[in-house]
Recover the amino acids of this structure.
DNA sequence: AGCGTGACAGCAAGCGCTTTCTATCTGATG
DNA sequence: CATCAGATAGAAAGCGCTTGCTGTCACGCT
């Protein structure tokens, strides 16, 4: 069998209690004893039994990070930042924590399943990232779960997700960013702007689109319903949606995409249609992922401080930073004007 | 306090043993009893205590996935594929498994720490992805850990990592891919090729570089040591390394990068230096990440079947697929010739 | 000398679940 | 009608660790 605490105790000629205390460092132990124990641990290559420890102490060193799509750098960057703040020592002395990221694939059921799994493991904290699905039933179910988690002592933090009464939230100002972006294009002279939205039922999608529409409205531009197409947050979707937009109205002078990945697909579609960027059509994205600056022309977009927000969420989850007043912090995006947007062709 | 098995048992008027059996479905229980129990579970909103269960049953439903950089789609894509194969029912009936991805950041210590943490949690399986660090001491330490994990019943699978005696491995043929890529360039007429390698002590770096050199050697091209620069696997590194290569030898007609991200940085550097791709300098990457086809010109690279390999590793880890004969499967990359490589300028 | 006071160390009672072994009941069988 | 197998249900013994409480010393004080 595997080595147990008792084995170590026997070897070090102390009681199991003492070994436990040495390992946890939360009770005075004579230096000489400690050394003897540590030596035994080393010699036997002892590894604590996590479940047993968690059961007895009624706490765990697991921290869950939920993401919609782990293959998308948007989430990867946030997850990385969150995790980097969690790895280090936390509450319990010597507290190595196991930060785990769970991929929901954007599915409400999987989100709930993971939350239950995390609850089952008595996770120390949970960070939910990215837009939420707008469905009353699901929203209530998630809210319930979050409340239960919180009741059980799990710290719950939202990052890049709209606020919820059950948790602390670091939210992105998607509406403001969307508005600023479109105002930039309007300022350049664009009047006919296509919009490629994300999945219809997501908060992120809705907020960015609302910002876009607010900008149009503020400038007295009446929106043509043909100018909006919904899709997924991937390149393919951007490609196809752009072709569709072009089919519906070839006179569009700008295409605003739900995010950078989609924008890249849009660029490809425009190029394949023989249109130049930005001479014929301007393109704008959202997020400012690392590859966006390398697009040709480089992408005009809204930079979201993913790393900073993630790091902050991680620190709050570890109780290492005060939650923002009111439990909600809104983080603004920064407009990055680059080569993909320009003055529209005359006509 | 939280609801326990005993509470459910009391409510359903059965013994805790029966509740456990209903939940695990591994022992005959009368339909009527089962229903009563399930009803009680539902009414009390009972959630199993993971640690207690793991302790008693001496098994856990945790599966660890180790990645070098979660913000890099290379790993994100693999992790996503692995996780998708793990989420479903596995060994234990109703077996929801918690697939967790751990970000080592390429650091050997963190790799070891995570391995210990997973061992501590008595993980059901562990999948290590990506290149390993080439350091004898660390290699031995990891080997040891893997052996211990395997001894404790944890299934260990390597994915995109060189084979090790302690585990089943799905390996990428980085050497072959590197060779094929460079041969393609040589075939186009290139004779002076710069190479931007990854971090010096990684297996992936070494293998790809070896393939490159093998191709050069096979064609009687003597390599100039100035033509190789080491860096990190990121865009910045590619940018800087390219400027350095250009400084060392402005007559280079091609730049081969350690991966696509680096290649993108290289493209940017070339463009900023006033050089056209591929007219003045050809560029090649490795991996064929989703954004590579959107580069302008689109990137010539070697496609690695990340999803397929990950899925397979996941299935093997879950015992749902036979391990390959000999415990090692080598997966080849596929040369993708695209716009970034062309005939060198004369001279 | 007598005793309060720290500083350590050990005992033992769980933590909430799984599982072996045993008990009970129901039909079916001869 | 006695007997036995089969099907369920329960009792209880842990799984390996944490921790409240109880010693046991060795000092230093009055």
């Amino acid at each position: 069998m595997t080595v147990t605490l008792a084995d170590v105790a026997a070897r070090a000629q102390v009681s199991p209690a003492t070994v436990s205390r040495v390992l946890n460092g939360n009770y005075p132990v004579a230096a000489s004893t400690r050394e003897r124990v540590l030596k035994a641990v080393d010699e036997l290559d002892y590894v604590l039994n996590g479940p047993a420890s968690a059961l007895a102490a009624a706490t765990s060193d697991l921290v869950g990070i939920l993401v919609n799509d782990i293959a998308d750098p948007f989430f990867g960057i946030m997850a990385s930042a969150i995790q980097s703040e969690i790895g280090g020592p936390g509450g319990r002395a010597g507290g190595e924590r196991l930060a785990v990221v769970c991929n929901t694939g954007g599915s409400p059921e999987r989100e709930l399943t993971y939350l239950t799994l995390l609850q089952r493991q008595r996770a120390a904290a949970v960070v939910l990232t990215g837009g939420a699905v707008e469905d009353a039933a699901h929203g209530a179910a998630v809210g319930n779960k979050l409340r239960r988690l919180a009741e059980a002592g799990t710290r719950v933090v939202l990052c890049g997700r709209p606020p919820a009464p059950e948790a602390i939230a670091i939210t992105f100002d998607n509406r403001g960013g969307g508005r600023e972006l479109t105002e930039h294009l309007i300022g350049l002279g664009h009047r006919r702007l296509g919009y490629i939205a994300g999945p219809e039922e997501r908060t992120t999608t809705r907020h960015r689109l609302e910002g876009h529409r607010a900008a149009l409205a503020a400038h007295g531009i009446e929106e043509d319903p043909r100018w909006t197409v919904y899709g997924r947050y991937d390149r393919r979707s951007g490609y196809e949606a752009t072709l569709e937009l072009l089919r519906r109205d070839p006179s569009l002078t700008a295409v605003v995409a739900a995010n950078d990945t989609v924008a890249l697909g849009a660029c490809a579609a425009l190029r394949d249609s023989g249109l130049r960027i930005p001479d014929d059509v301007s393109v704008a994205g959202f997020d400012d992922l690392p590859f966006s600056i390398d697009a040709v022309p480089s992408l005009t977009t809204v930079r979201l401080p993913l790393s900073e927000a993630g790091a902050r969420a991680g620190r709050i989850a570890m109780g290492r930073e005060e939650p923002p007043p009111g439990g909600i912090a809104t983080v603004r995006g920064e407009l990055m004007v680059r080569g993909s947007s320009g003055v529209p062709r005359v006509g």
Q: What stands out?
A: Residues 89-94 of chain B have pLDDT under 50 and may be disordered. Residues 14-18, 21, 27-30, 33, 52, 54-58 of chain B lie near DNA strand D (CB under 10 Å from a C1').
